[in-house]
Amino acid sequence: MSSPIQDTILSQLAALPEGKSIDPMNVAKAIQPERWQQILGHVRTNAIELAREGKVVILRHNKPVNPEKFRGVYRIRTRLEGDPTSFEEETGGDED
To answer: 48 and 82 in contact (C-beta within 8 Å)?
Structure first.
């Protein structure tokens, strides 16, 4: 079952050319224009859930990162062929 935030993430991604990403701030502004800062944490949580399901990829520095361990500024992109599906072999890459 998807949430309004997940639906917004997926619909914004569907409107973009393949390989392009979205800023979580734009998702928050689309849902709650006046108080978008208050839901940024919820956008992050929903993006992580979608990444776990394999629907999206979380990007840092334009590279897929482990949705369970990333920190800081990120973007969201639809999963492409060749994107990693597992991050078990990671040894402390760029997760800050």
So the answer is: no
Q: How far apart are CA 55 and CA 80, in angstroms?
A: 9
How far is C-alpha 50 from the geometric centre of its chain's CA atoms?
7
Q: Check: CB of residue 72 under 8 Å from CB of residue 96.
A: yes
Question: How many percent of the chain have pLDDT more than 70?
Answer: 90
Global pTM reads: 0.87
State the DSSP string of 45-57.
HHHHHHHHTTSEE
Q: List the end-to-end C-alpha distance of the chain, in Å, as a whole number.
A: 31
Q: What is the pLDDT of residues 35-60, one digit of tens each?
A: 999 999 999 999 999 999 999 999 99
Q: How many helices (H) and strands (E) does the chain have?
A: 3, 4
Rg of the chain's alpha carbons, rounded to an integer?
13
